Amino acid sequence: MSLKYRNQHHHAMIRTRLRLIGRLLLELKKINISITDFASVFKPNNYDSVLEAINVVAKLNAEENKYKSPSTAFACGTLLKKCGKTYISELIKVQNKERKQEVEDFLKLLEEDYGISINKTVLENQLEHKRQRKLLFQQ
C-alpha cells in the first residue's frame, strides 16, 4: 500500500487499513489457533474462521442480524482480496505453485461467498440506516 499511495495525505488511510487488518488477524488467532501469521489466513479450510472473525470485528448482532459497523465488514473483504492478490504476486516470484493454488482457491471462495454471507447484510444495514436518517430529517 505504501508503494501505491506515496503522498503524505494518504498515510492516515494506510494506517487505518493496517489497523483493521491487524484487528482481523488478532481475532482470527483467538478463533483458530492454526493461524499464526497473515499468510496462514489464505487457506481454504480457514475461510469459515475468517467470516467468523469479520463478524466479530464488525460487531454483528446475531439476534437482529445487524452490524454495528457495516462498513468495517465491507472493508475487510476488500482488504483481504487486495492482500491475497499481492500475496499471489509474491508467490509467483518465488515459484511456489502449491501455495499459490491454495491462495487462489481461498480468493475464489471469498469472491463467490462473501457477497452472500457478509455484503448482503452490510447493504441491508446501510439502507436501513439511510432510511432512518431520512425520517429524522423529515420530522
Characterize the structure shown.
The chain is mainly α and 139 residues long. It has one domain. The chain is 71% helix and 3% strand. It has 4 helices and 2 strands; from the N terminus they run ααββαα. The chain has helices at 11-31, 47-57, 70-93, 97-138, and strands spanning 60-61, 66-67. Strands 1-2 form a two-stranded antiparallel sheet. Helix 1 (11-31) packs across helix 2, helix 1 packs across helix 3 and helix 3 (70-93) runs antiparallel to helix 4 (97-138).
Give the tags.
mainly alpha, 139 residues, 4 helices, two-stranded antiparallel ribbon
What is the fold's blueprint, element by element?
Blueprint (H helix, E strand, L loop, with lengths): L10 H21 L15 H11 L2 E2 L4 E2 L2 H24 L3 H42 L1
Antiparallel strand pairs: 1-2
Helix pairs in contact: 1-2, 1-3, 3-4
Quick gist of this model?
With 139 residues, this protein is mostly helical. It is built from 4 helices and 2 strands; from the N terminus they run ααββαα.
Which regions have little confidence, pLDDT < 50, spanning 5+ residues?
none
Order of helices and strands: HHEEHH
Radius of gyration: 17 Å
Q: Please estimate the helix content.
A: over 70%
What average pLDDT do the residues reach? 87
Largest sheet features: 2 strands, antiparallel
Give the termini separation. 44 Å
Strand order in the largest sheet: 1-2
Number of helical regions: 4
| Secondary structure tally: strands | 2
Strand content: under 5%
What structural class is derived from the secondary structure elements? mainly alpha
